[in-house]
What we know:
mainly alpha; 85% helix
Amino acid sequence: MALLDRRTISILLTILLFAAAGTFIYRAGHTLVLFLFAIFFAYLLDPAVSRLQHWSPLSKGSRGRAILQAYVVLALVLAVLLIVVGPRLVSEGGRLGAALPDLLSRVTSGQILSQIGSKRGWSHESQLRLQQFLAGHRGQILAWAQAFGVRAAQFVSRAFWLVLIPILAIFFLKDGPDFAAAVVDTLERRNQRQLLRGVLDDVNRVVARYIRAQLVLAALSLIVYTIVLSFLRVPYSVVLGSLAGMMEFIPLVGPLVAAGTILAVAFLANYQHLLILAIFLGVWRLVQDYVNAPRIMGSTLELNPLATIFAVLAGGEVAGVLGVYLSIPIMATLRIVWRRWRTYSDVERGRTYGVRLPAKDQGVA
Length: 365
């Protein structure tokens, strides 16, 4: 009698395969993230490339020429934006960076509260209590600031990704469909190929819509924040508006961090109309979440709000900010795989027992 039967060996091999895959993902995490962002960038450009391929007389049906045209147009748009907004963004960013150490020092010492409190009519007792509170939490405040500085330094150290991501995206734009077809063709059974093709098509459609919708929402936030903050004469309005637009890419957490950062900087800079600023931030959040997002996003993901919140929180625990950003696409992908697998299992069960399923359930593609 064999020590291990075939079923036990199959289970052990499956466990080893998953363990090896998990180890590989852990070890090559940064490289995989780089490729993921390249894929997302390719999703953003794919509609423009497809239109240029079919309609542009310069491309003549060539996808390579269409990709080149799309990159040239994108480079021109970015150049115009840098010429128009770049100088002010750099100027405000430099002034904010130079002022932060002094602001942090005055916050931890409680000195800034005396300056702000005297201008706003706070009582001496209130100022004293707040100063004591800040002095008692000086170490924690400095630790938070140091952690933020470390994260910012890590982000800056990967600035070369801004060059690598568009380069890698070229390969996904040009060879992505062929690569997917090659993966599908590796399966032997027709039903399995249909299953995998259906999963890939659904994931491709959902992720593409999600990424484009997030880009539209982020661009809308960037424009509105920058215009309104400039109109309200909030200090560093262009920097804060740009930051808020980029943070819109991070579901749930990003907008809250952006709003808190805007209020904190305005408070530390002794901005006089904090209440009006807070009202604007709250109203815009309601408009963005309950008017713009439903119209732009629609039913793209078909995820329950509770599942979305769980995905964001779990992603943040597992992989930090990156996990928060990727959690919703991953959750949507798992839902697609589960739904397709159930349909595939029903079809296989029907064939095994000779049961003819309804026409709408027979195909999994």
